[in-house]
Design brief:
Order of helices and strands: HHEHEEEHEHEHHEHEHEHEHEHEEHEHH
Mean pLDDT: 93
Radius of gyration: 22 Å
Shape: globular
Helix content: 25-40%
Largest sheet: 8 strands, mixed
Strand order of the largest sheet: 11-10-9-8-7-12-13-14
Bound molecules: iron/sulfur cluster
Number of domains: 2
């Protein structure tokens, strides 16, 4: 089996082409999304014939992308046998584990191709600035994979409010369960950001989330603090297009690191147009995305699953690396962060890292770094996963943003404590 860390830094487009010509296997791009599209057209320019895309997300399969079929990863062997795989996914580590389990050895990081592209010289299916952002992120994340000594985080969500201007029945961030939602304490958020940044080597993006982040009137203070952190490369604000920020908030977001990602919920996003206009006028990067791809992942119930089932759920969960900062704690995903915020389940301290407590306990930054690394790399599942249905790519889609009038009451009467955590 190819040893990834040994060979990757020496790879070039020419070497990959030479290996492909020698093994004469079909070429497939792993990841039917924007980075994959850019690699596809780069391959066309280089005379490399790509036969198909493969993807873990079943909703992307069974149809064409860039004029070629998208097959589910599980069906790759049945369709093509052995292949050359160009990986167009930022989180390359998970994909390498997956493809090597499938006994694929001819895989290559797509960043080697992406580095040879000027995205502004092509027309892709997405807006140029967004394509540029996706490509840079993919390059950056894959580059960091070959430097295992660095503590690099692709993305960290920071929760700045529990309040939202919408009330979606299936909000995956569990806003529908907050009876008295509050904004998070700005001082505490800033302290946590500072601690995290003092420990890690680099964070590709901080995603500012809620609820609806513009419900927190101090969003510009938090955004400015993130922008000023030299280890943070991008700050992405996720909004539902219902609120037009005030001029001082727009001013606070005005930085090349900032991008505003607006989800278009149709008539519900009643301020989408004015928001787009004011971001454009201020020269702030933004991207409007359609609401879609929702799955039923917001149910909270105690399942009492055995450890093997929890491991399988966690392994298949596409949210397990959605690292989340909530108050002064670092979590694996927004579900676990918000379930703890809701305060109705027993807390298992192994499910998150308490950054403030670590400092108070006198841990030095190298020890916190070691703990973080173990939390990120060694976890097999969390006890909190037992309250969750997980987020599998195979789950059926549901209607997005169905609105409810009242918050949902949690019924966790069947809780048993003592669930193991790995
Ligand atoms: S808009 Fe809907 S999905 Fe988004 S945070 Fe608010 S309640 Fe959740
Ligand atoms: S299964 Fe676990 S990791 Fe995945 S969303 Fe649920 S709690 Fe988070």
């Amino acid at each position: 089996m190819m040893s990834p860390k040994r060979n990757l830094s020496a790879l070039t487009v020419e070497l990959i082409r030479a290996e492909m010509s020698e093994n004469r296997l079909p070429v497939v791009i792993f990841g039917a999304s924007m980075a994959g599209e850019v690699i596809f057209y780069r391959c066309q320019e280089l005379g490399i014939r790509v036969l198909a895309f493969c993807d873990n997300n079943i909703k992307k399969t069974g149809r064409d992308y860039c004029g070629i079929p998208v097959v589910h990863t599980k069906e790759l062997i049945a369709h093509f046998g052995d292949v050359n795989l160009l990986i167009a996914v930022a989180d390359i580590e998970d994909i390498i584990i997956q493809v090597e389990r499938l006994n694929y050895t001819h895989w290559y990081p797509g960043n080697i191709f992406l580095k040879t592209v000027n995205t502004f010289h092509h027309v892709y299916s997405g807006p140029a600035e967004y394509v540029d952002y996706v490509v840079k992120t993919c390059i950056h994340c894959q580059d960091n994979y070959i430097q295992p000594d660095r503590l690099f985080l692709r993305s960290v969500d920071v929760i700045i409010t529990e309040r939202c201007s919408l009330k979606c029945a299936h909000c995956s961030n569990l806003m529908q369960y907050y009876e008295h939602p509050q904004n998070c304490e700005t001082t505490q958020i800033l302290e946590s950001i500072a601690i995290l940044c003092s420990v890690v080597d680099e964070i590709n993006e901080f995603r500012v989330i809620g609820g609806e982040p513009f419900m927190n009137k101090e969003i510009h203070i938090i955004t400015r603090a993130l922008v000023d952190e030299s280890k943070v490369h991008n700050v992405v604000i996720y909004t539902n297009g219902t609120i037009l920020p005030k001029p001082e908030q727009i001013q606070g977001m005005n930085d090349p690191k900032v991008m505003v990602l607006i989800t278009d919920y149709g008539a519900l996003s009643k301020n989408l147009e004015p928001l787009v206009q004011s971001l454009s006028a201020a020269g702030i990067r933004y991207f409007v995305d359609n609401a879609g791809g929702w799955t039923d992942c917001a149910k909270i119930e105690k399942h009492n699953r055995p450890a093997d089932d929890l491991k399988a759920l966690f392994t298949e969960c596409c949210a397990k690396n959605t690292f989340t900062l909530s108050d002064d704690k670092f979590f694996r995903c927004p579900f676990s962060a918000n379930l703890e915020r809701l305060g109705q389940i027993p807390v298992n301290s192994a499910d998150r890292i308490d950054l403030a407590l670590a400092l108070k306990s006198g841990w030095d930054t190298s020890f916190i770094k070691k703990q973080l690394r173990a939390f990120i790399n060694n976890m097999k599942f969390m006890s909190v996963c037992d309250y969750c249905n997980g987020r599998s790519f195979d789950a059926p889609e549901i209607e997005p943003a169905r609105q409810i009038r009242q918050f949902l009451k949690l019924d966790l009467s069947n809780i048993q404590t003592g669930m193991p955590c790995e």
